[in-house]
């Protein structure tokens, strides 16, 4: 079995990127203003060095290599990469969003068999409700069990009380 070996240049690129992730780990959970200050102080200089390293590396390697492709990809999106250093509320990566949509992406082929367009639309609505419940820290099964049991008798003018970000479990469900 043939295994690819990492080049010293790719190893160095990964180490530089790991240093940026290390900064993010150190400021995780901090207030946005503090995160922004640390990023401006520590991350921006590392990013400037990383960009220079990328540009120099492109001159040393084959333009057809996978490393060159990865570097060109990063350089063409450089402004977007730097965006997190201008707003402390932003994350360095979109990993949280990717994790949130992963179940949807994994089931994509299965949903071709929803039975009809209407079935697909209903499935999409249910997946949206389930993911919204998760994003609001709720157990989707408990949330759905509660609201489906209450919705028929719930006043229509107060339906927003059943939205995941407003939801309060019914007293009878708590005892169960």
Q: What is the number of helical segments per DSSP (H or I, 4+ residues)?
A: 8
Topology, number of strands: 0
How large is the radius of gyration? 23 Å
Q: Roughly how many Å apart are the termini?
A: 55 Å
Q: Largest beta sheet, briefly?
A: none
Percentage beta strand? under 5%
Summing up helix and strand content along with how strands pair, one would put the structural category as mainly alpha
Q: Give the overall form.
A: elongated
What does this structure look like?
This protein is mostly helical. The chain is built from 8 helices and no strands. The longest helix has 29 residues, at 32-60.
Topology overview:
Layout: H1 8-27, H2 32-60, H3 66-76, H4 78-82, H5 95-106, H6 117-135, H7 140-150, H8 171-175
Helix pairs in contact: 1-2, 2-3, 6-7
Annotation keywords:
single chain; mainly alpha
Brief overview:
By secondary structure, the protein is mainly α. The protein is 64% helix and 0% strand.
